[in-house]
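glutathione transferase
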Amino acid sequence: MGDHELKLLGMWASPFVLRARLALSFKGLSYEYIEEEIFGNKSALLDKSNPVHKKVPVLIHKDKSICESQIIVEYIDEVFSGTGPSLLPVDPYDRAVARFWAAYIDDKLFSLFMMMIKGKTTEDKAKGRRHSFAVAETLEGALKGCSKGKSFFGGDNVGFLDIVLGGFVAWVHTRDILSRSKQFDAGKTPLLAAWLERFCALDATKAVMPDVEKLVELSKMRQARDDAAAAAVSQSN
Ligand SMILES: N[C@@H](CCC(=O)N[C@@H](CS)C(=O)NCC(=O)O)C(=O)O
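Tokens:
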């Protein structure tokens, strides 16, 4: 469990779990990782630790559970303020701006990802992808403003927003492979494209990044399953 009595309930492919893992990795904190079977057999520990949503990630710190990925990242930053780099900006206004963009990422980027993956028709999926390019352009402006010309949303170092967006990078690569295009295109969003490369090259990121080939396989499997279910429905009508 490491020196800090930390456990993380997770699922390897989850972008939200990746956020918690990134925060722990950048802080240099050790913890016990427990893989959950979220699509079938949720453990009694998960039910007990997140009775409201029964979702991962859940961080368990000295037997107290903390739910919701953004809240977990903030908690880690506050409780372990003396360990590793500081993640949230120091200035209250900069913190407010970071939280605004974090909410935007969850609200817009995540729902468009779901639309690209789970859209009922090819047109729905294409629409999701088109809208996600518009969201990337908005995030390009956010990166420009927050980084103040430096390498990361957090400035010279990775901060809260880098981790919030960073949770999605493995899925960005996965969608890029499946769609044979670039979500963060160097021509349209050069700052974001450079950020993606820089962020993925960091050791603390590499240490916790899920295997993109496995994510591609998982996506193909889910697609085949959804296609079979849709075909069965249309045959029964
Ligand atoms: N808003 C939550 C979202 C967490 C979430 O959606 N987790 C998914 C895995 S990606 C989950 O546990 N799903 C299980 C379920 O829906 O029953 C967060 O930021 O932590």
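The beta strands are 6-10, 32-35, 58-61, 64-67.
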